Amino acid sequence: MFGKDAAPKEKPVADHATGVGDIVNAGSDGELGEYDELAVRCPPHTTEKQLKARIDYHILPYIIILYLAAFLDRVNVANAKSFNLLQDLGIDPKDPNSTQYNTLLVIFFVPYIILEIPSNIFLKRLSPRLWLSLCCIGFGLVTALQGVAQSYGGLLAARFFLGVFECGMFPGCFYLISMWYKRSEAQKRYSLFFSSTSLAGAFGGLLASAIGKMDGMRGYHGWRWIFILEGSATFLIGIVFLFTFPSFPEEATWLREDERAYIKARLQADQGRNAADRKVTFRDVITVMKDYKIWLGGFMYFGMIVPAYGYAYFSTTILQTYHFSPIQTQLRSVAPWASAFGFGMLIAVFSDWSKHRFLYALLPIFIAIAGFAILLNVHTNLDLEYAALFLTCMGTYSAMPVIVCWFNMNLAGHHRRSIGSAWQIGFGNIGGIIATYSFLQHDAPYYRNGYRIAISFLCFAGASVVAYAAAITWENRKKDKAIRDVGMTDYEKTELGDLNPDFRYML
Fold it and tell me: Fewest C-beta in 10 Å: which of 157, 299, 455, 474?
């Protein structure tokens, strides 16, 4: 069994299972390092804590900045809507039968959904540094070009290509995180990365309120400046990332050889061999998709995406129904996002501390349901309605990173993890299409249909979480009862990934 009980202290994993024990166990002077909790010996010149801090320093800032920029460029259309976007494109914002704005949102998801798995295959072959940096340059450029669109069709085309370039960012970063950290320490990192959405939502509101004051400058309305300035900043970030963005441990030049071997050994003790040098093929995709647990992972995320994008794209629209000015609408959108960041990190810390995911995925879902239920039923108490926006944002954006981390870290091997993570994000984002048509203009100001749809999908996500927990519990018990020594080679176990008899899923 892989995990903290996988290898007794008297038989260190690094000495007999990794093939790198001599590197890990001794420095150049023969000095021995200390064992970590998985009984893998750390290089003598450092400690596990120090090495994790270095990994955090070299990985987390880059992926957080990348995701913050990507999410900001994706949802800033909601901020732009408050500054004459629709009017300039010839769309009547008061037409109850118009769905052109919703179509503008949904076109993004068409390539975003289709290209997730191919993107992760390219990421594996080209390296995260090159692939994700090129994606960043691409969606930054497209975002800026949205600001000079002269027609509805032009903006529609730009939104399509925004989906093309953004498709690889989210699953690629989750995939990268999973190749550096053990399962018991991954949730804080996943949530910190994912909470960039909350920071982007909060920062986007503040930034839009500031940029909105440029309305009329050089003859441009404020919505154009939102796209141009935010897109240009993202483009420049992508250029810098071409030279600085991190990659897999096997390619990290800032690690010593014994440090690289130790990271490989500790991850193998926790998750099994990852087959980093193995190419991912279309046949692998077919094989991985035959596992019913993979489908459950997609269902969990699919159920969360509908309320998540419903909130991200329409929270400012909902706030406008409370009769705030455009600037006040942007400013009041900040606090729910900020609270979601704090609550999400609190959930992550307790989840890693307890080495448990199931209950920490379920609890925030209940909180989000409560928030949407208040919005559905209360229409005369402005303070309570505003508080409900906090609950919906906190619950939704705290449950999602737990679900993604839980599923991804329960997949072993580069091929199963790259395909499984891309599938979960790609399939899940079909919910984005549903979300964009959930809040229609003719339902204003109460948006009862949108709230009902959000609650329904949260219930679906909760049921999928319970089903996944039951499935992995049953799989663990089945492995416990099976014959342990089945004579499988290391290669065969690597090919099976988390399906091999030695792997145990984290509940």
Answer: 474
Asked if residue 344 belongs to a domain, the reply is yes
CA torsion, ordered 198, 456, 439, 396, to nearest 10 deg = 0
Q: Has residue 159 been placed in a domain?
A: yes
Where would I find the H helices in 245-333? 257-271, 282-288, 292-320, 326-332
Six-digit token string for 400: 């999602």
Structure tokens at 471: 């499935």
Are 92 and 227 spatial neighbours (Cβ–Cβ below 8 Å)?
Answer: no
Is the distance from CB of 435 to CB of 400 less than 8 angstroms?
Answer: no
**What is the pLDDT tens value at each position of the chain, 507 positions in all?**
344 333 333 434 333 333 334 334 434 444 556 766 667 788 888 888 888 889 999 999 999 899 888 888 887 787 777 777 888 888 776 766 677 888 888 898 888 888 887 887 788 788 889 999 999 999 999 999 998 888 889 999 999 999 999 888 877 887 788 788 887 788 888 888 877 777 776 776 677 777 767 766 776 777 888 888 889 999 999 999 999 999 888 888 888 888 888 888 888 777 655 555 556 677 878 888 888 999 999 999 999 999 998 998 888 888 888 877 777 877 888 889 889 989 999 999 999 899 899 999 999 999 999 999 999 999 889 889 999 999 999 999 999 999 988 998 888 777 788 788 888 888 988 998 898 888 888 888 889 999 999 999 999 999 999 999 999 999 999 888 876 656 666 666 666 777 778 788 988
Would 472 be classed as within a structural domain?
Answer: yes
Q: Which of 363, 154, 411, 386 is nearest to 267 (CA)?
A: 411
Number of folded domains that form the chain = 1
Q: What is the CATH number of the domain that holds 395?
A: 1.20.1250.20
Whether 21 maps to a domain, the answer reads: no
* Domain around 386: 48-499
